């Protein structure tokens, strides 16, 4: 039987694996969860992961996440892009919801809330075409 337990600051989630697996524990450090959340948020929002800051506050079976990040906006001299852009509040709300569901999937626990603070504006990342 294998027991999976999160590290001390993350709560006490325990799962038991199939009897055919070797016994043991898996501990995930808080730093790993933080970096995973930063990368996921950056990917969803469309900014560089280095500019995203995440704080995770965990309880027994849930976690609350605080994300601080610049937000991508179109170049203001590109009137066509400005007209086509989703309003920032609407885009931020959608990003909040997607961050919540992706982190719940990645962490295997409920994310009770995601607080998103927009710390500035940035031009969207350009995706490479291979």
TrEMBL record:
Top-level division of the source organism's lineage: Bacteria
Q: What is this protein called?
A: NTP pyrophosphohydrolase
Please report the organism this UniProt entry assigns to the protein: Microbacterium testaceum (Aureobacterium testaceum)
